[in-house]
Design brief:
Elements (H helix, E strand, L loop, with lengths): L2 H11 L17 E4 L2 E4 L22 H23 L5 E12 L7 H16 L5 E7 L8 E9 L1
Parallel strand pairs: 3-4
Antiparallel strand pairs: 1-2, 2-5, 3-5
Helix pairs in contact: 2-3
Length: 155
C-alpha cells in the first residue's frame, strides 16, 4: 500500500485528525530538500486546534501522555512532508528521527516517549523507523513536551 493510503487508514482507525502544517516561529524553513534527502525542522506536538501539548515528563506528564505528544509531533511532520512534497508517496524511507523530551533530570524513559512518533512513521511508511536518537532536555520552545525532527530519503 502507499504511504497516503496507510496514513488515511491509520487516521480512521485511531480517530486522529491531521494538524495543519505548522508555521515557522522563527527564521528557518520547515522542510529542506538536499538531493534525495528531506530534512524537517523540529516539530512540536500540536493538536488539530493548534494548541501545543505542554509540560515536563516526570513532573506533570507521564509516559503515555508523552507518547501521545510525540505522535502529534509526528503527525505535524507528516503534514509538513505532504505540503512540501505534494504526496507522502515520494518518501522511500525514514532515515533518522531525533526526539527531544522536556523532562525532569530523573526521567529516563525518553525512548518510550519518542516511540509515539517512530511507531507512527513506521506504520505510515512500512519500512521501519530508521536510525533514532532520543534524549531529555531542561526545556523546549513554548514549554512543549517534546520536539522532534526527522530526515527522509525521497524520490
Amino acid at each position: 500500500m502507499s504511504a497516503e493510503v496507510n496514513l488515511n487508514d491509520l487516521l480512521t482507525r485511531h480517530r486522529l485528525e491531521m494538524p495543519p502544517p505548522p508555521k515557522p516561529q522563527g527564521i528557518y524553513t520547515p522542510l529542506l530538500v538536499v538531493n534525495n534527502l528531506a530534512f524537517t525542522a523540529g516539530h512540536l506536538p500540536l493538536r488539530p486546534s493548534g494548541e501545543i501539548v505542554k509540560g515536563r515528563l516526570g513532573e506533570d506528564l507521564d509516559v503515555a501522555a508523552g507518547y501521545e505528544a510525540a505522535r502529534l509531533a509526528g503527525l505535524g511532520i507528516l503534514a509538513t512532508l505532504r505540503q512540501a512534497l505534494g504526496s507522502l508517496d515520494r518518501v522511500v524511507r525514514v532515515a533518522k528521527v531525533v526526539g527531544m523530551v522536556n523532562c525532569t533530570p530523573q526521567f529516563d524513559q525518553h525512548p518510550a516517549v519518542i516511540n509515539g512518533c517512530s511507531e507512527l512513521l513506521a506504520e505510515v511508511f512500512g519500512s521501519g523507523a530508521g536510525a533514532r536518537s532520543s534524549f531529555g532536555v531542561a526545556g523546549l520552545p513554548l514549554g512543549a513536551a517534546v520536539e522532534i525532527e526527522a530526515i527522509f530519503e525521497i524520490e
